[in-house]
Design a protein that fits this description.
7-stranded antiparallel beta sheet, alpha+beta, two-stranded antiparallel ribbon, 210 residues, 9 strands
Length: 210
């Protein structure tokens, strides 16, 4: 079955298409479009006053994933004080996220969470999706954790990132579910929060086939 890449159109791409001399359609590079979308999303993170060194960051249990996002025929846990929005629709209202492919994100002053997905029937290895969600500014730390969670093949890695100075730590994971492959990434102010966030998110994840 033919596999379609993620297509996340940006304003710059739209302008390029409108001003191009040739009427031939241009196939965007999904990696570059994701980088542009994430950069624009991170730019929306509120500017906060630096935390004094004597003030501790929240404990790893401070983030309670009691929120549940259910759209596009899957559900995923998230902190109750954060809300996912459709990055694809923000970039191009005519090409919102769908069952087959999409990108959503949630931001507050202490967390950035991103989820991407696409159909990939018969795919058992989600590594390509993990590579896709990681940016040039993301550096994997330690060994890649590979495991089976329910019926899902799961990969997870801790990361450090220079995407934003106030959220230098993070993690990323990817997994298969039914005929789709998903990837998740978080930026956080401390590294102890990322693994518990991933585990709790994945424990609450469903796509109707896992």
């Amino acid at each position: 079955m033919k596999k379609y890449p993620l297509r996340f159109l940006t304003v710059g791409l739209i302008l390029l298409l409108l001003t191009a001399c040739s009427p031939k359609p241009v196939t965007p590079n999904p990696n570059e479009l994701i980088r542009q979308a994430v950069a624009a999303t991170l730019a929306a993170i509120p500017t906060v006053t630096p935390v004094p060194p004597s003030t501790p960051y929240p404990s790893p249990t401070a983030y309670n994933l009691s929120g549940l996002f259910c759209e596009y025929q899957f559900c995923i846990g998230h902190p109750a004080d954060m809300a996912f929005y459709d990055v694809s629709a923000q970039q191009n209202p005519l090409a919102p996220s769908s069952y087959g492919q999409g990108m959503i994100a949630a931001i507050n002053s202490t967390l950035f969470i991103q989820v991407i997905w696409q159909t990939a029937p018969g795919t058992a290895d989600p590594k390509f999706m993990l590579d896709l969600v990681l940016e040039e500014v993301d550096l994997p730390v330690g060994n890649l954790d590979v495991k089976l969670v329910r019926t899902m093949n799961v990969m997870y890695t801790a990361i450090t990132s220079t995407a934003t100075t106030i959220l230098p730590f993070g993690a990323a994971g990817a997994w298969t579910c039914g005929d789709r492959v998903f990837a998740w990434k978080v930026y956080s102010p401390q590294d102890q929060t990322t693994a518990p966030l991933f585990e709790e998110m994945l424990a609450r994840f469903t796509c109707g086939q896992n």
